[in-house]
Amino acid sequence: MGPDARARPPGGPLRVAGAAVGLVAALAAGALAAGWAAGPGGAPWTARVPAGAAPDAGGASSAGPAGITESAGRRDGGLSARGVLGHGSNAHWSQNDIVLRSAGPLTSLTVELRVVPAGEVWHTGQWCSLPADDFRVAAREEGGALVYRWELREGREVPPGEYRFAGQYHHSEGRRDMGRDGYTISGKGPLGPVAARGGFRREGRENVGGSVTE
């Protein structure tokens, strides 16, 4: 019997007249029939695709697949990073985000995102949360991957904080496997050269991420 209170039996025995018993039985039978008609099942999972275009072309709004976890990795040298599937990703379009955190200023920084394989994805845009004029950016196919690159211009500096670098792309319909995607980060901070590298995971698996001091 369903969770509807109307379908529950009375809390204890009652002494009622025959007519009242008949009325209660009729009501209970009706509620039971309604419970069976509603059924406990639900519609099968389907990918939600927004009516609009991807964010770079007008702003997608659907939520990304559930169950994605993030791993902050180690914090050696004051630099750490993690890879996540960006908000707005859907069955036709996705965004890979690299979230970088630096405990100190960086006077040089190169961030590279690799989406694999290149033949199954199509570049639609890239951005970062730092001033765009501070970076030279590029996107190209290289070694079987779609490679996004951000390189800090000479004379510019990245202040301490957390920043996001995102590569956007179309892909074949469905839930795309991110298991071969990855990123590398290199730069120079107060303690000398620093670097980080990692990958992307979904459905409860940790992202492969970390940082090292050279």
UniProtKB/TrEMBL annotation:
Region of interest called Disordered, as start-end residue ranges on this chain: 49-83, 194-214
Domain of life: Bacteria
Compositional bias (Low complexity): 50-67
UniProt name for this protein: Uncharacterized protein
Organism: Streptomyces carminius
